[in-house]
Structures are given as C-alpha cells and as structure tokens.
Specification:
By secondary structure, the chain is α/β, with parallel strands linked by helices. Helices cover about 25% and strands about 15% of the residues. It has eight helices and nine strands. Helix 1 crosses helix 8.
C-alpha cells in the first residue's frame, strides 16, 4: 500500500508498516526531535508542522491513512483526564484527512484508557465519526507481548475499511502466549529482550546507549518498581513534559535506570535505530512510540487484500 501517516513520532508504527512491505509516502509530526529521528531512519517524506496548519490538498492520495494520535488526554495514567480535554480533539484531524482522501483503509492506535473515557461515550463518538464517513469500523485491544515485544503494552487498534471495498480486515493472531500454550511461543521476558546488549558503562558502539542517573527509590510507584526479569517489562511510558524529566523503567538488575537503547529494545526497535535529541527527549520519543513489532503484526494483515 501507499500510506499516509499522521502523528508519526519517531516512526515505530511506520517502521512496522515498512517491515510488512508497505510504502509510507507522506508523514507528519509536530515534535521536532522526533521528526529528525524519523528522517534519520525512515526518510525525508515527513513534514514538520502542526497538522492543523496543513491543507489536505498538500497531502497525497493514498491507500491507507494510519496514526497513533496523541493520547495524553485519554490515558488512564492521567488522573485529570476528562471528556473536554483539548488534546482529545486531535483525533478529529484524522477525521479531516480521512474524510478528504477517502483511502480504502485507515488504522488508528491509542491507549486502552480511551475506551472507558466518560463511561465509554467518547470512544463511541469516535467510532461513530469514523463510520459516518463511509467506513466499516472495528477495534480490538491488543497486547504487544502477544506479538514478541518484551513488554506488557495494551493498546486499542481501530481499523476502518471503506464500505465499497469488499474485503474484511482480520486482526492478527498472537504469536506468543503468557505461558507458551496452544503451540505458541512464551512471552519474551525483559531479560531475554536485553540479553544481547552490553553494559552501557563499558566501551560499546551502540547508539543512544546512555542512561539517566536519576536515583532509584524502590517504593512501588511508577518508575520505582523492581522488574521481574522473567516476565515482559511493564508498559514503557513517556510521562513528563518537554521542560522536565520522564519516568524511566529500572533495569532488571535493580541498580540503575534502563538506557535509551535498552528502552528502545523493550519497544522492539532495531539496535541501529538512531534517535536524535537530548537523552530526555529520546526517552520521551521511545515512550510515545508504537512498538514496531506490533505495527508489523497489524500491517501485514493488509497484505491479504493485495494477494501477498
């Protein structure tokens, strides 16, 4: 497919679509460091600007529009979330672009918490808005750990198929299982995920392999919980803002924070994926990203339409 990507960030979802054989022909984000990361790794087709400033006439026609639209207003981690949060309005930019381009398909990704906001009324409104443009809309809550990502990360994936396209999207079947049952591989643990990464305090050539010296204080709160090395990591987050620090998972050894490279690996980015910006910015880009392996899983299902 030829794909237009909105709210592309550092490119996790787009990388997954590329891995599945699709072509990203146009992308956009407002976070400058993330745009530079995207250009460094995926290409020059990304536009640095607020999507609200971009005319739909300047966006090319495409087979699919995809986007992990900003989710801070929806997240269950945001105790102040409410239906009127202005950040919740950004999904309407997906509506604007999809309504203009009318691609065969669209795919939107967000946090699980969006489904329960305002007792589910906001999510129902979003689904209705997509359907009203002439799409058969479905959604599924997916765990990245079920697709080989060494992280428990629940996300809702919304897929739309234009009503005149006689084809049904099927969500990918898991390749992994918590206990390795039903012929599936066992979830990848955080220790397995990080096994090939050298100590960041020793000489190495990996990009972004430095870590925050923010002291560990194991107290049960987010960012201060010991990890079970034999299980997938907890959800990688991007909490914090552009002026301050971010919440970073401890390393399984319990002695330090994970490095940027290690956190990117927990998100399933390749070892040579080079993030741009300050360390705090890199942590934030990683935390905001869609795991590429999850992106690949949902993207390759579209290949059935193309007979591949």
């Amino acid at each position: 497919m030829q794909v237009v990507s909105l709210f592309s960030g550092a490119g996790g979802l787009d990388l997954g679509f590329q891995m599945a054989g699709h072509e990203i022909i146009w992308a956009n984000d407002l976070y400058e460091d993330a745009v530079e990361t995207y250009r460094q790794n995926l290409g020059e087709h990304i536009i640095f600007d607020d999507i609200r400033n971009i005319s739909v006439d300047s966006i090319p026609n495409c087979d699919a529009v995809i986007g992990g639209f900003p989710c801070q207003g929806f997240s269950v981690a945001n105790t102040k979330r409410h239906a009127e949060d202005e950040r919740n309005e950004l999904y309407k930019q997906l509506i604007r672009v999809i309504g203009s381009k009318l691609p065969k398909f669209f795919l939107a990704e967000n946090v699980k918490g969006i489904t329960s906001l305002a007792k589910g009324e906001v999510f129902k409104m979003i689904l209705d808005d997509f359907a009203d443009m002439g799409y058969n809309v479905q959604y599924q809550i997916m765990n990245a750990a079920d697709y080989g990502v060494p992280q428990n990360r629940l996300r809702v994936v919304i897929v739309g198929v234009r009503n005149d396209v006689r084809w049904e999207y099927n969500y990918p079947k898991p390749t992994h299982d918590k206990d390795g049952e039903n012929g599936l591989r066992r979830w990848v643990s955080v220790s397995e995920g990080l096994a090939s990464i050298p100590n960041p305090d020793e000489p190495n050539t990996l990009p972004n392999h430095t870590y925050s010296k923010y002291k560990l204080n194991i107290n049960g709160y987010l960012g201060h919980r010991l990890l079970d090395p034999q299980k997938p990591a907890p959800t990688v987050t991007a909490r914090g803002d552009n002026k301050g620090g971010v919440v970073i998972l401890p390393h399984p050894n319990g002695k330090r924070r994970m490095s940027c490279r290690e956190l990117a690996t927990i998100q399933s980015f390749p070892l040579d994926y080079d993030f741009q910006g300050t360390r705090s910015s890199v942590y934030r880009q990683i935390g905001n990203a869609v795991p590429p392996l999850l992106g690949y899983a949902v993207a390759k299902e579209f290949n059935r339409y193309w007979g591949k």
